[in-house]
Design goal:
The protein has 9 helices and no strands. The N and C termini lie far apart (35 Å). By secondary structure, the protein is mainly alpha-helical. Helix 1 packs parallel to helix 7 and helix 3 packs antiparallel against helix 4.
Length: 152
């Protein structure tokens, strides 16, 4: 969904948790597209590479059985590499003029992806259950898991 600059959440974790429900069709499309690729690498990204990309990566890593601490570390380290871009981005400057609250959403604090992973487990039963709930077929989930080295 397009970010509503007039109604920004107070923190990224809140935004990510809401995204699990608000963006189900978009998540389904991403994972179905990935599952449909016969082989090779699948590139996915977003503007900054931490929000939509971070959520998709967290879902994939969770599906692959990666330990939660590694998923959180992978997400949190993004702040170090994204900081120069976030500081000088003309897009970020324009968005900050529209709503200064966006400045608080620039980083990638561990607690943001932890909130996302908590909601994924507590509300949806984990990555595999979430993908089923949003309409990704068992066959597509199986293909994704095979690509991630998790299927028999």
């Amino acid at each position: 969904e397009k970010l509503d600059l007039a109604n920004l959440p107070d923190d990224l974790g809140t935004m990510y948790v809401a995204s699990l429900d608000a963006n189900q069709p978009q998540f389904r499309r991403v994972f179905e597209t990935m599952a449909a690729q016969p082989d090779g690498t699948v590139l996915f990204h977003c503007t900054a590479g931490k929000d939509r990309t971070g959520m998709v990566a967290a879902l994939l890593l969770s599906l692959a059985g990666v330990p939660r601490s590694d998923i959180v570390h992978d997400y949190a380290i993004s702040a170090r590499y994204l900081e120069p871009m976030m500081r000088i981005s003309p897009q970020m400057a324009t968005m900050a003029r529209q709503n200064p609250k966006i400045i608080a959403l620039r980083g990638s604090p561990a607690e943001s992806i932890e909130a996302f992973l908590d909601a994924l487990e507590r509300r949806h039963g984990g990555a595999q259950a979430y993908l089923r709930k949003i309409g990704v077929s068992d066959a597509d989930i199986g293909r994704l898991m095979a690509r991630l080295g998790q299927a028999n």
